[in-house]
Write a structure and sequence with these properties.
Layout lengths: L12 E4 L3 E4 L7 E6 L6 H12 L1 H6 L2 E7 L3 H11 L5 E3 L4 H5 L3 E6 L2 E6 L2 E5 L5 E6 L6 H12 L1
Parallel strand pairs: 3-4, 4-5
Antiparallel strand pairs: 1-2, 3-8, 6-7, 8-9
């Protein structure tokens, strides 16, 4: 588990869309926005992903790559990415390795039942590999603008 802000994020790798493998070390020199979301094709996750898509050129201008992560399968991710025409890759974390590293698994209430799931969260890793910002318990409205503002101020 990550210990604190401004600490180095340990190297990790994971399967992602486009038949690619994510390796943190491949992105040295770029800022990374990693957003964890509960599930493909649900209203909040769709709205959040569309907001990242629509502002993607501005994130690119700020030397920032975006990656979405959930526990969904790569097959589900490929369909979600295609349906929304996302210009960035989605990372599949079915065994919750990255969810645990970033400590995003929480007990939540769904229809009066306690269920374990991903707490919508966003993290910024700077060009040197340090965790420099985190948002937890994210409310979708206005969130992506706030993330863009943060990374733009860093460049």
């Amino acid at each position: 588990m990550l210990s604190a802000l401004n600490c180095q994020v340990p190297e990790f790798s994971a399967a992602m869309t486009g038949s690619k493998e994510f390796h943190l070390s491949n992105y040295k020199g770029k800022n990374l926005v990693i957003y964890f979301y509960p599930k493909d094709n649900t209203p909040g996750c769709t709205t959040e992903s569309l907001a990242f898509r629509d502002l993607y050129p501005q994130f690119e201008s700020a030397n920032t790559e975006i990656f979405g992560i959930s526990r969904d399968s790569l097959r589900s991710h490929e369909g979600f990415k295609k349906k929304l025409d996302l210009p960035f890759e989605l990372i599949s974390d079915p065994d919750e390795t990255l969810c645990l590293l970033f400590n995003v698994m929480k007990m939540k209430n769904m229809y009066g039942k306690q269920v374990r799931g991903i707490e919508r969260s966003t993290f910024v890793i700077d060009a040197t590999g340090k965790l420099v910002k985190e948002w937890r318990g994210v409310k979708v409205a206005g969130h992506v603008d706030e993330v863009l503002e943060f990374v733009s101020a860093k460049t």
